Amino acid sequence: MTGVVAWRRDAPDTVDPTSEPRPGPVPVALRVGVGVIALQALVVVGYALTELVYGVVERSGTGAAVALFLGAYGVGIAWAGWLVLQCRSSARSPLVLAQLLHLGLAWNARDEPTTPAAIALAVSAVVALLGLFWRSSHRWLLDGDPDAAGPTARV
After folding, report:
1. 126 SS3 class
2. Alpha-carbon separation of residue 25 from 18, 93, 94 (angstroms)
3. What is the CB neighbour count within 10 angstroms for residue 61?
């Protein structure tokens, strides 16, 4: 499939998503990776709601700020995951960064009593990264994303 190259003089300014053929169904590896990311987002938003309730009870501005930050983070990674499933390869970058942050957080929380949570976080981050970088996922994202199309974007 050839895409529109932005530097061509005869290329249109906008790309009609209905005119581009879809690259096919979403690969299983990418579905699994984004599914894990959706679970992570759900946990983070749940924790944000818990912090918000705790901040209101304690009348702490810090609790509200943490809740706002975590809520935005959870919604952000969920939105990026949805965009990846819509074949937007540029949304993969924030998801990779989030997984790398999760790996660092898991390493930091490896000592007792948080060892089980650290293991769960590390395993989920590795599964998500594998799903995002699996060969079929990578090829599917590049073949179907009009923004990534071009002579150098091919794998």
Report:
1. helix
2. 16, 21, 23
3. 9
Residue that the structure tokens 């974007």 belong to: 153
- pLDDT 10s digits, 30-53: 999 999 999 999 999 999 999 888
Structure tokens at 133: 């970088």
Residue 109 CA to residue 68 CA, distance in Å, equals 22
- Greater confidence, 62 or 2? 62
Rounded to 5°, the CA angle 38-41-47 comes to 145
Rounded distance between C-alpha atoms, residue 88 and residue 90, angstroms: 6
Tokens representing 33 are: 């990776």
Question: Tokens 């679970």 identify what position?
Answer: 39
pTM above 0.90, yes or no: no
Q: Give the residue among 110, 130, 133, 132 at the shortest CA–CA distance from 120.
A: 110
Q: Is the Cβ–Cβ distance between 52 and 151 less than 8 Å?
A: no
pLDDT at position 54 is: 82
The helix (run of H) or strand (run of E) holding residue 32 is: helix 28-58
Asked whether 38 and 124 are in contact (CB, 8 A), the reply is no
